Amino acid sequence: MKTKALIAPSILSADFSKMREELASIKNSGADWVHVDVMDGHFVPNLTFGPPVIKMFRQHSDMIFDVHLMIEEPERWIDAYKEAGANRLTFHIEACKHAHRYLTAIREKGMASGITLNPQTSLTEVEYILEECDQVLLMSVNPGFGGQKFIEPVLEKIKNLRKMIDCKGLKTQIQVDGGINLENSQRIYEAGADILVMGSAFFKASDKKSLVDKIHSL
Ligand code: DX5
Ligand code: ZN
Fold this sequence. Notes:
Structural class: alpha/beta
Oligomer: single chain
Radius of gyration: 16 Å
Shape: globular
Strand order of the largest sheet: 1-8-7-6-5-4-3-2
Number of helices: 9
Bound molecules: D-xylitol-5-phosphate, zinc ion
Distance between the termini: 13 Å
Number of strands: 8
Order of helices and strands: EHEHEHEHEHEHEHEHH
């Protein structure tokens, strides 16, 4: 039987000037993890924040920090994100030459390991390193910005990844990120996703707790 869907609100859509309250609103909603989007202005055409700022967010939340690195040379920063308070660390396969090595290094530091694929990147890129992945994050928008539209063919990619993971008898979780809202969440979950990242739809919701309850009962 499929486990219930988890929801990881993305603070990219939060009001950065009152992050303490925004983090409290995530906690009070009953959501599962906090999704933290790190952008370097090179790998993606946008900039957010890095370890020192995440360390400050950490002071205001005891939730799981699920850090999504959209940066070049992610391997240089594993220790820094661990120290900043990351519990889960995911990097882009398109930004890394030795993914197997860095997945292993992330686990050795006591964090959950994740790899992420842009919408056009084939699943064969992760097929032979799945054992090292606690999660695979499938991007369902082009990374860089919140509020974009879900790319529909990613649904088939989720189904294929589910088959690949089940076939190998692994526990790797599938996370999907970009353009997710209450309307399309059912289809994404049924395709095989375990964790739904939600930015704009979460922060726009007037009743966040009811949104989270609905995701939990998909
Ligand atoms: C996009 C980020 C997402 C973003 C999702 O590059 O990785 O996590 O915050 O935002 P929505 O849910 O608005 O598409
Ligand atoms: Zn993200």
